[in-house]
Amino acid sequence: GSVCGQAIADHPDVRKLGFTGSTEIGQVIMKSCAVSNLKKVSLELGGKSPFIIFADCDLDKAVRMGMSSVFFNKGENCIAAGRLFVEESIHDEFVSRVIEECKKMVIGDPLNRGTAHGPQNHKAHLDKLLEYIDIGVKESATLVYGGKRVDRPGYFLHPTVFTNVEDHMYIAKEESFGPIMIISKFGNGQVEEVVARANNTEFGLASGVMTKDIGKALLVSEKLDAGTCFVNTYNKTDVAAPFGGFKQSGFGKDLGEEALHEYLKTKTITFEY
Asked: Which sequence positions are flagged as catalytic?
């Protein structure tokens, strides 16, 4: 872990390093790369990816995408939707449907094909998630589902849903890296306003938008300050599509032709004859 990683970052024979992990550790690695031999580094770091759900979306699909955007792999997913913005006119129905879907989730052995929700990676992370939930409750966000450890052996956390989350709250700004859905409401027709709220973060890894209006989809996807934007889907990546973040989510690309350039050098040779 840290011993091996630090040795690689410090080693004078290494000229290029790629790292995927937390912003905090990315900052440490970047300093080491600079001090050691100014080695080139690409970083894929933390995220708080916004997912904007407009009233003119396909609501059935929006619920499915909202669920998978947060709960895929128990939320241990770098591009998980860290905050859902739901337009006011469909907010209550969206929340109601999400809760119904959460109740149907099969919690159990991740090696069982019938399981929809497995355990968290380790106890320290589970404890961190429970603390995260506790902070959300103390800040007066509304805990509408889950929020507790499952009463069974293993590091299982119930899928958790918060509503009435305001922009200043800790859970609105910090990544959980767990199965915790953070829902904020925005006013009907407030396109520019919700985009500004979605961009008001130091992270910029991924984002998403649900709408049947292609003009609105193009406008919002262009204005969202993130390296990836999913339109009417989520988590749908491709090996040919460059992947990487903006701001404190890092820089450099994985996947696609652009990823190859991270490991290449451009050289100019000038002849006179």
From this structure: 44
